[in-house]
Hints:
This is Phage terminase, large subunit. This protein is an alpha/beta fold. It is built from 22 helices and 21 strands.
Amino acid sequence: MKIDLTQTHDVDGAYQAINYNDIRIKYNDDATKYCFDVLDGKRLAGYITKLACFRNLQDLKRQNTSDFPYHYDVKEVQNTFKFASIIPDVDLHKPLPLMDWQKFILAMINGWKDANGERRYTDIHISVGRGQGKTQIAGIQMCKAVLIDTLNFTNKDFLITANTSDQSTKLFGYVKKMLEAVIKIEPFASIAKESGLDLQTNQIIEKETNNKVWKISYEADKYDSTHNVLAIYDETGALDTYDRMTDITDGQAQVIPYHQFIKISSAYPDPTSPFHQEQITMQHIMEKDYSREGDNSLCLVWAQDDLDETFKPETWEKSNPLIGLSDEERKRRTDNLIKQRDQGMLTNTLHKFQNKNLNLWLKQSTASYLNLKDVEKAINDDFKIDGLICYMGFDYSMFSDNTAVGFAFPYTTPEGMHKWQMMQHSFIPWQQAGSIEAKEKQDGLPYRELAKKGYCTITSHEKGIINPEQVYKWILEFTEKHRLDVKFFGYDRYGSYQVKNITESLNANTGWLIQDIAQRTSELANPTKFLQEAYATGKITRFDDPIEETALLNAVIREDKIGIQVDKDKATKKIDVVDAEIDAMYQGMYNFEDYGLINDKSHQVERMTQEQVLKWFENPDSGLLGGETGDN
């Protein structure tokens, strides 16, 4: 059965349509039971948690097949639980029983293996609300890797890292305290003695085997010297780029007995964080159950489903699963969270509560142009553009900024609602970054992969600057290929003679209305506001394009006495796509109005090519003027 939840998001319906009796009978471990409890409605959980549980049950059905050469090692899972049961909580200094959701995390990390017996999941993404013990889980996994998984191995590295030295020190301290307690218990006391385990201030080393646990912060920039069996990155959501992450993963590729990279974090204010983009990508992969993409990546997220749940404490177990420990704990934790929420409302810091406690991604600044939820819900990948009317916008840049072409396709739904499908295509320069690889790291976008999907074009210029001839040819070829009826082409000519060359060439070779739009509030306020409100009211749809989404979420509002314009909150943020789409909406927003270009016949002759004018004179009923005759 091909299951695709990308449109319906009905994971409950998909689960109920499948018979899992064979899995219920065969697997009695606590992690599998948790999946059934979540999907049977016995345990409150959010959508992404349900997806992960559904994915696991599906994987249990398809394991050990040609398309899916992985298996679930129940013995490894039970051994993991047994080891975790003796590790003390670092705050209470005694072992605590693990909850089912915590066992689910450990089972997924350790239990799934490939045909060679190595760990299936090499890239692991874990996100849960503040104070839920995610660092504790990471510490347990590191202790297991050091004491059990690499027993009898030599010269193995393990990495503990975070954005700052203080953050990495916190997780390192957790691991150190856990190990101090565990090595008092046999057989780990003997193992520690034989290996010469030495718990130092900034590293943990086994002197006899030369296995080392390193503590390095992101700001130190020394990852390329390690080749880690296990690397754990704490508070990954704070990063605005993964530009040095490859220094961690590149060194892991050939490591034995396995290699894993675990990223843990709660949500942060900036939804363009690569940690959040990774979460979105993995959600789509899990929704495409039939696809084998991403089989080595694990995404486990406990989060609220909607901002509205800020005022529904009965749903907070979705992001705070420790609430489910007991009735007493539910009341204590819920009451405490309500106090934090109410304090946030009084101090105008509710967004911090939503980020950290409810694990919801949103834009912190009140100056944000668009809401994350509105941008995400607008996706419509099935839209067909061939033969349609469109309005185009153009934002040109030669150096570090991208050049963008924006499209607005007006359409009417079967229910009679007027909408616009937005689209963009970017041209990517890399001169200032030094290479396309560096440009990708700088912007946090995989441009070469996105180019294969048609969302962008890497500049063909040998020096890495925008090639105006390439841009011009792409615009003509794309509009001709898709038979687009271009009604308007708006652009910003500021600062570049190349723009003039492109627009004059288009003017000479097309019948488009081409207009220079002054980039000032008096000109841009109306289309800027229109696009913003159209997103909020569901009148905008768009393709699932990461370049477009990043630009939309980077944009903030700059306001003056006349109105609003978009701007960017950081110099490195890209909003050229937004500028191009606003230029397209300069006339596109009037498409359904009586005074819009499409309904105004008075200037159509001015926009015709010589061939079109001749055809109209020879046959005035040709329809070039909407069916008018030459009697006027």
